Amino acid sequence: MDKEDTKHIIKERSKAYATQLWELIRDQVNKHPAETSAKNRPVPPRKTAEYKWLLNLLVAAPYVLVVTFTLSFFWDFDGLSATFFEYSFNFEGLLRILSISGLIGFLTNWLAITMLFRPTHRRPLLGQGLVPSQKDRIAYRLALAVSEDLINPEIIKQKIHESQAIARYRKKATVYVKNIIDDPEFRDGLKKLVVGYVDEMIADPEVRSSIAKSLIEQIDDAIEENSFEKVALRAYSFLKGREMQDLVENALQKLPTGIEKGLNRMDHFLDELPEKLDEHGSVIEDLVTSLLYKLINQLDVQALVEDNLRAYDERKLEQLIKNASNDQLKYIQYLGAVLGTFGGFIIWEPMASIIVLSVIIGSVILADMLIFSLKKKNQP
Q1: Secondary structure E strands in 11-110
Q2: Most CB within 10 Å of its CB: which of 121, 187, 253, 294?
Q3: 169-200: per-residue pLDDT in tens?
Q4: Global confidence as pTM
Q5: What is the domain count for the chain?
Q6: Angle (CA) 104 108 111, round 5°
Q7: Which among 316, 289, 21 is positioned nearest to 156, based on CA atoms?
Q8: d(Cα 330, Cα 326) in Å, to the nearest integer?
Q9: Which of 34, 89, 28 is nearest to 349 (CA)?
Q10: Residue span of the structural domain in which 25 resides
Q11: CA angle 220–223–227, rounded 5-degree value
Q12: How many angstroms separate the CA atoms of 12 and 46, rounded?
């Protein structure tokens, strides 16, 4: 067996024992689950309309307008007129004017909201919805805003520093490691693994010979030629009547027994390990912080957000926006029917309608300002 084959055997056996060591550690990790301190942030509740009945009332407006428009074909205040304060009002055709104006207001708002999202894919004549057609630009602008103002390396570093997260988790990690290494089952398994690894390696004559040869080469390289140490080694080999290779291999054969006797030192090392981790806690924290900062500096937040938004399905994006603002979109849609109906009054009688609508709108605005002011004063 040549040197390369021996190295391959050592490498494969080392991998096998490394796998066993990992399984031993994994079993201990499963046996001692780490405490999870992450808290799930509550989902912000969807803001619903304060006056739900008003939305339900507005939903009926398009249906009422359709019925009114249908009725106008059979009866529409035919020949009906009236005089108020010497001002003559002709009601003939009013139903059709109001119903058409209201339906136009409803349909234009419905079309505007629909065109935000549909069609999802470009059509030859219908084009494409605003959000799908501008998805790349929206993704870029949103990612830019997120990376500059919300999540960037400097903000992440600041939050890590302010929260003292590394120090807290280092302390928790030390306690966690202590719980694992204090487990007698873990220590017994680790000792058996070490002894088994050394015993299997030394038991193979080819491997033992390769290790001995490597040790001799390292000793020769470390000792100067014609030095006292090298002369002493040669004299020792001559007096024993054996080659240095045989002497080293013989010493290696006794290695497993020596390791078994010295395993109490491993216990001593494991006992001191948590204390050593605490003693060098600041060094560990500085090292972890430095590595974490290097990782953060290499993190391109803008590209990460932009790529994820670009890959986001248009229908999912539409559903996301609608789920967050469905009531408000419905208000806009159905309110168009009411505003369109008011527009019909202006078409019918411009001057009188403008005066009445101005009074109504002004009253609503003043009432809103008054209520808002009162609520603001009552807030603590």
Answers
A1: 81-84, 87-90
A2: 187
A3: 888 888 888 888 888 888 788 877 877 777 77
A4: 0.51
A5: 3
A6: 140
A7: 289
A8: 6
A9: 89
A10: 3-31+164-279
A11: 120
A12: 59
